[in-house]
Design brief:
The protein is built from five helices and seven strands. It has a five-stranded mixed sheet. It has a two-stranded antiparallel sheet with strand order 2-3. Helix 1 packs parallel to helix 3 and helix 3 packs across helix 4. The longest helix is centred in the middle third of the chain and has 14 residues. The mean pLDDT is about 95. The structure holds magnesium ion. Magnesium ion binds next to strand 1.
């Protein structure tokens, strides 16, 4: 098993009134946004963790600690680019990524293709390797109560 690797990532951020809502590098107009040290982009964070996980390189908290002033207000798509550079420098490339965002509101469907485009651009891969789905959790739990949003990501890496 030296040619392919699988990775998984999961992230959550709390939502607060009047803060920017940035998901997959897309600024979405909404009355709530992420309470976070960085920009709180849950999708970029879950994907970054999946990429690191595939190569057993730890997680983004290890590489970009939220106690560090360097990453305060950080653009998470830039962090994603740095993570992917770690992947490619080790001789791996993304086969595909499949992600799900869990959020009650707003509807994310109108923004999904821009998110896919942003991520494909940062990773320099064709957009058809990047899948993003969105779902609600039927008003259950913290996403249902609009207290936060979550994202899952699974990636396949290929050698070469
Ligand atoms: Mg995070």
């Amino acid at each position: 098993m030296d040619d392919i690797r699988i990775g998984h990532g999961y992230d959550v951020h709390a939502l607060g009134e009047g803060l920017p809502l940035i998901i997959g590098g897309v600024a979405i107009d909404h009355e709530k946004g992420f309470v976070a040290h960085s920009d709180g982009d849950v999708l970029a964070h879950a994907l970054s963790d999946a990429l690191l996980g595939a190569l057993a390189l730890g997680d983004i908290g290890l590489h970009f600690p939220d106690t560090s002033a360097d990453w305060k207000g950080a653009d998470s798509m830039e962090l994603l680019g740095k993570v992917y550079a770690m992947v490619t420098s080790r001789g791996w490339t993304l086969g595909n990524a499949d992600m799900t965002v869990l959020m009650q509101r707003p509807k994310l469907r109108p923004h999904i293709d821009r998110m896919r485009g942003n991520i494909a651009r940062v990773l320099a891969v064709p957009v058809d390797r990047i899948s993003i789905k969105a779902t609600t959790e039927e008003r259950l739990g913290f996403t249902g109560a609009e207290q936060g949003a979550a994202a899952h990501a699974v990636v396949l890496l290929m050698r070469g």
